[in-house]
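Support reply, case 0932

Customer input (verbatim):
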Amino acid sequence: MKKLEQTEIKNWSETLPVRRAKFGVVARQTSPFFRTQRRRLVLVGLGLAGLIACLLLCVTFGTIPVPLDQTISIIWNHTLGLIWPVARTYSNGNDTIIWEIRLPRLLLAAGVGAGLAGAGALYQGLFRNPLADPYLVGVAQGAAVGAVSAIVLPLPAFLYALGLVQWGAFLGAVVAVAIVYNLARIGGEVKSATLLLAGVAVGSVMAALTSFLTYLNQNKLTSIYGWLLGGFNMTSGWENLGRFVPYMAVGIFIALLVGRKLNVLQMGEDQATLLGLNVPLIKLVLVAAATMMAAAAVSVSGIIGFVGLVVPHFIRLLTGQDYRLLLPLSLVWGAVFMVITDSLARTVMAPAELPVSIITAFVGGPFFLFILRRKKKVEF
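Our regenerated output:
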């Protein structure tokens, strides 16, 4: 038996250069355009330029439209205008609308979209399945328990002004994923299938607990469902953005560092280990980064579906499976997608406002079904 294992290892190691060469090109077979790092940077740069243009256009829309030139002047005077101010051609009302209401809300939406899409891409790489999404290991269900608990508890009003619901949702999401990860650890090892099953089980328990708390506090149904449906109408403002950014920044920073390791992981855990990858450690890092991004996003927006599922899958269809490109593009275009959907939610039934999750479901659901129908089968 021992001799047979040595023979297998020898045969595998002899073919290792071929495997390395094959792996080096597998993510670049889609098009020669994606072969160089410079061109990858160009694609990401174009995406960032599109995001900035989208923010500038969408911030002008609303029940009270603000001309684009005035919008640019307002943003300039509040930022670079401290050094080089421009002439003030706008009213105080427009200044308040743009700087105090719409801009922080859209920046928050962009961050949430980037976080959900980035977390979705990480989980799809971890599970090697394009149907994985950020809520697969209990993030949404744990956040719901934390947020609903904060809503129904009779606590002083000043705590809610400090963001108690958001902190409750964030902690609930982190605790839920920590429970899932520890339950999935068997013999010091965490298998992807076990992690997935533990996530489903813990998510079901958390969902039942949320329903139980809702049933006991029917006098607060409006607040509870307002959070569960997802949106930014109750969390806009620079203070919410300030609570959200540090955790999202850490998660995004980690995600951008692990692209090459995710490429290796796609070959399978056994082969990745033989190539020198510390699989248990990279799994822990991936779960931690994805959880931080998804938990931070859900804490300020509620549960918004399809972003982490559709955006990475769409980017993969365009650029291939190279996570060095897939991850940053998912972050950028997830932000663009959320900015656009939030703008639609604000304006499509103005002055009323739709929950953003309804817009993402209307857009994401049919699109994803179209992709599945066209491809006939899911390829990864």
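We compared this against your earlier run and they match. Two observations from our side: The beta strands are 185-186, 189-190. Confidence is low (pLDDT under 50) at residues 1-31. Please reopen the case if you see a mismatch on your end.
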